[in-house]
Amino acid sequence: MKKLASILVLVFAVTFTTQAQKKRGGNGERDFKLTAEQHATLAVKKMTLTLDLSEKQQNQIKPLLMAQMAERKTAMAERKANRADKKRPTADEMYAMKNERLDKRIAMKNRMKEILNKEQLEKFGKMRKNKGKMAMNKTKGKKGSKDNKGEQRGRRS
């Protein structure tokens, strides 16, 4: 009887914890929704701070980023719909998607080469590399692990 009671308590504890995480948006969902134009404006401003863009460069980059953000939102909506229908892409579809994504990145890089000078282009390349590293670090360490921000705060051995 004690085993049954302890198993029930454990099941309830796990259930309540997962429900609490869902309510907070623990799966990467954010409470705020920005439009493609808002995302692009923020991205241009960040790039302006980092790369010291001129007004002309900002006006050339913003439509590129707006188009990119709009494509990203539609692709995300499509993936959500497929996930809801429990559809998984085939190997050929995955290849086509990755190939298309790389083509778009190459095209974007070429457009950026036309807009930015050499010094700005180098900084832009470093920004992109660092962005990828930051994303990897976010997913690498879980809350409370020593990989995440060096060591735990507030705890002493």
TrEMBL record:
Q: Could you tell me where the Basic and acidic residues compositional bias lies?
A: 144-157
Extent of the signal sequence: 1-20
Q: Where is this region: Disordered?
A: 117-157
Which keywords does the record carry?
Answer: Signal
Which domain of life, per UniProt? Bacteria
This protein is called what?
Answer: DUF4890 domain-containing protein
Species the sequence originates in = Polaribacter sejongensis
Lineage of the source organism?
Answer: Bacteria, Pseudomonadati, Bacteroidota, Flavobacteriia, Flavobacteriales
